[in-house]
Amino acid sequence: MVLNRHFHQPPVMHPKKRPDITQRNVDSFFQSPEFQDAVARRLAGAVQIPTVTYDSMESVGKDPRWEIFYKFSNYIKETFPRVYQSLTVEVINEHALLYTWPGSEKGLKPLLFMAHSDVVPAGESTTKQWTYPPFSGIYDGEFIWGRGSEDDKSNFIAMLTAIDCLLECDFKPERTLVLAVGFDEEGGAEQSYGARCLAEKLMDRYGQNGVELIFDEGIAGIEHRFGTDFALPATAEKGYIDVTVTVSVPGGHSSTPPDHTAIGFLAQVITLIEDHPFKSQLVRQNPTLAFLRQAALFSKSMPEELRDAILGAHSHKKLLEYMDEDRDRRAMVRTSTAVDVVQGGDKVNSLPESATVLINHRIAIQDSVQAVKDHYFNLLSPWAKKWNFSLDAFGERKQAKNITAQSIAINEHGALTLTAAYELDSSPVSDSEDPRFRWLAGTIKGVFGEAVVVAPELLSGNTDTRYYWDLSPQIYRMSPWRASHDPRGTRMHTVDERMPVKGLMEMVKFYHEFIRIVDEVRV
Q: Where in the sequence is the active site (predicted)?
């Protein structure tokens, strides 16, 4: 594995047209404490509306929990009247919002921003652990507190604020700008009532690869690693699958138990699964490899042994050992396995007739949904044969690899059933050598400083971009603010989620400048 030692960082980019906009907004208005407080209050008001989504919600119109989104969309309309007067605003499936700012050059592909208005539940059991109530939207002059303050209402408010500031300066785009805002990114429905419907509308309008580039949320984009500030836009996402394993056996009275109950058998299966993780691999198409390369070339304090392992021609084993040492790093090179939910048994004097475990996998770049299913089949077939269990693996009964015989008879030991849900292969990988990535990198350096090293990364979670893959090959995921603004680190999806006002203003500046730069450049 020989890596290019001559990689160069893209140059800093600033808008060249309309310097008066830079002087008014970037150099003056954005520095004003009054403006910063106003933007913070906009986000605080959005946080105060509890747009919570839950797993397996029914469709809009059937499930009353969607009703709160009407209040949220009305709040946005009242908060940004100039945006609603100047842009075309469409409501898709009641709660998805589609903003279009038409450009004067119809031959240019549009720039597409994405966000989502829903948030995860705060959890009644943890309410007392919050510094402020989770939907209070408290702004203390430094942080905006509450569920959704970071994920993802901060991005949405920052995008609209940037657009509003450009409108106030009479900015007229040449390239069409589109903002698509879903409302069930956090898991309201497997097939999505929000982003999927938005993507279908955009496909009808712009067609296959009809969008120049797509920018969506991601991790806090500027992180300090190896003594260096890195901007880490994700150019790919891992895949996803939930696997349910069910052991079914005859029941009975607990006074005359067999050697193993359904729960005992399931415990064996769980141990087998956890003891046989997926293989770690660092394949060339994994963005993590590009990050490591650039970290080795540009970081200030990377250990020399690690630097040599990354840049060396024969150090692949050492590099994989480094990645496997830490669970966060390991997740970048391996399909993860998380045993999350176990159910079984009804009463202490009654033998359970079934026991079930739900296992979550985030699928690595080198694997696939089918590879995960094959892994389970080949791992559990010998176990099923040993105990003379029938095996129904994802609706199929077939010969396992390296297994000479397979019993499908149900006896007193019963059956082993595997099912899958939420199946999603890893995303296509956007090219970090593409000119559009250089536009992004140049903007980042212009906003956050030339010393920031921009490198692609792999996102271990999933975003609404999974519905947008056909619209553009260039999809980037990043929340453009410095993680160092919060000494406690990111708090999304947990107690005391909060957004630093400094980070929020960095978002506003980034979107403001990125809109202008992409409007000026051409492929």
A: 118, 185 (proton acceptor)
Which entry of 152, 164, 184, 185 is annotated as an active-site residue? 185
Assess contact for 507 and 115: CB atoms under 8 A. no
Q: pLDDT of 330-345, one tens digit each?
A: 999 999 999 999 999 9
Distance separating alpha carbons of residues 233 and 517, to the nearest angstrom: 17
392 labelled as ligand-binding? no
Q: Is 388 exposed, middle or buried (0-12, 13-18, 19+ CB in 10 A)?
A: middle
Give the mean model confidence (pLDDT) for residues 418-437: 97
pLDDT, residue 399, reads 43
217 has catalytic annotation: no
Tokens of 79: 């908060």
Average pLDDT value for the chain: 94
- What's the distance, CA 344 to chain centroid? 32
**What are the structural domain ranges in the chain?**
19-220+467-511, 239-279+334-424
The end-to-end CA distance of the chain, in Å, is 31
Q: Does the N-terminal peptide bond of residue 152 adopt cis geometry, omega within 30 degrees of 0?
A: yes
Catalytic hit among 118, 229, 367, 464: 118
Annotated ligand binding at 457? The verdict is no
Pairing of strands 234-237, 177-182: unpaired
* 216 belongs to an annotated ligand binding site: yes
* 116 close to 152: Cβ distance less than 8 angstroms: yes
pTM of the model: 0.92
Model confidence at 407: pLDDT above 50: no
Q: How many helices (H) and strands (E) does the chain have?
A: 14, 19
- Please give the distance of CA 100 from its chain centroid, rounded to a whole number: 24
Is 118 a catalytic site residue?
yes
Residue 313's pLDDT band, with cuts at 50, 70 and 90, is: low
Q: Which CATH architecture is the domain 239-279+334-424 placed in? A: 2-Layer Sandwich (3.30)
Task: Find out whether 221 and 484 touch, Cβ atoms under 8 Å.
Answer: no
Assess whether pLDDT exceeds 80 at residue 7.
no
